[in-house]
Amino acid sequence: QVQLVESGGGLVQPGGSLRLSCTASGFPFGLYAMSWYRQFPGKERELVARISVGSIPNYAGSVEGRFTISRDNAKNTVYLQMNSLKAEDTAVYYCRRTGTNNWGQGTQVTVSS
């Protein structure tokens, strides 16, 4: 059974940082690209970042230079380091096994003073 469990969300002030983690089980993690998405209230989920099997990252333009996606195959975990956070980054963040319907439960990130 595939499971993706996110953690690390919370409340942070503008300009602050958070690191999200997503730990996977039930599939050969190292053989799959992984992605982070976010969803604003009333909107569709949007891609934030993706990391390939070979750890090549891609980012949405809105987060380029502020967010960093990485993976640790030994820990079956993908990370999203978020720096210089803005109020408009407030959303629920989800990890996904890329190209599948496997999603985590989501973690809330709130950027507010």
Mean pLDDT: 97
Counted by DSSP, the helix tally is 0
Q: Briefly note the structural class of the backbone.
A: mainly beta
What oligomeric state best describes the polypeptide chains here? single chain
Q: What is the share of helical residues?
A: under 10%
What's the number of extended β-strand segments?
10
The proportion of strand residues reads over 45%
**Which spans have pLDDT < 50 for at least 5 consecutive residues?**
none
The best one-word shape is globular
- Gap between N and C termini: 40 Å
Summarize this structure briefly:
By secondary structure, the chain is an all-beta fold.
Structure description:
The chain is mostly beta strands. 0% of the residues lie in helices and 49% in strands. The strands form 2 sheets. A 6-stranded mixed beta sheet has the order 2-10-9-4-5-6, with no helix packed on it. Strands 1-3-8-7 form a 4-stranded antiparallel beta sheet, with no helix packed on it.
